[in-house]
Amino acid sequence: MHWSLIVYAGIITFMTRFSMIFLLKKDILNNKAKKILSFVPAAIFPAIIFPPIFLDDAGTVDLENNPKILAAIFAIIVGYFSKNIIATIFAGLISYWFLIFFYF
Amino acid sequence: MNNKSKFLIKGVMDVSPLMIPVFPFGIIYGVIGMDLGIGPYMTLGLSIIIFGGASQIVLLQLFSGGASSLVILSSVGAVNARHVLYGAVLSEHLSDLKLFWKIILSYVMTDQAFAVSNDYFKKNNKDNNQHYHLLGSGFTCWIIWQISTILGIVLGSVVPEELGLSFTISLTFLALLISDFRKFKNIIVMLVSGLTATIGFNIIPFKAYIIVAALTALVVAALLTLTDVEKK
Fold this sequence. Notes:
By secondary structure, chain A is mainly alpha-helical. Helices cover 74% and strands 0% of the residues of chain A. The longest helix of chain B has 25 residues, at 131-155.
């Protein structure tokens, strides 16, 4: 690997982060656009969450032999009621360990 | 204590719990870099120059698979394209800053830093120094990422695969959405995003499934808000 490849990848990554912060001026976005942008976390994070949970190493959907789905549901329930980020992460992780140890 | 350091410390504290899964992820990244034989300097160099965990691993995978530079760079761009949306969201709070600040804050803007600082800005949208919150959250991510990369390089495979630490990454992002679970429109948007990504994972080239799913979900969000009455 050449360092040039790493530098180019770094520049591309930086530009994804910098472009909008640099280009968008204050109050350029109307309320409608702000309203839609408020959905950005809800629009992006599930795209990061779903594939590793539902797909196996071969990339096919695995619904039966899959403790991650049950652990994620448990984490959602704990998150819904506790509204606590740390409790949600640990509820999912501990229930996952419990499931792979006893059932899967 | 002046309010700059107050914001800085708040940013560090808010993002800290999210660093629990980042630490093993960084170790795993360091191990992968060494296993693929790019050496300690390049492994750490990627973490410093790119500073984006998922895209670094994608870059290494494609490189070891013999992909061309064009494919590698396109994929890095596609994996990181979500940051464009983060930038658009945060620009409202950062637009008055000097160019130097915009450069520094862009460099450290990770998923986790964006999530906690965006929440903070929404609640606290008045103070001139609130960008110190993003500096605190972003640099916490940066330091943890560099230390864990170095540990992965030095220690090798100390993190057993069976512990399911990759699953912890999913759980972190899930935990960041807990305030959305009670909003019906947000649930629809989340399901559209997740299902599009799962279906598109194998179909969409250049690992672009995240940004494709995100844009699809935002179109749905736009349709859902069409009926809302405009508030001034």
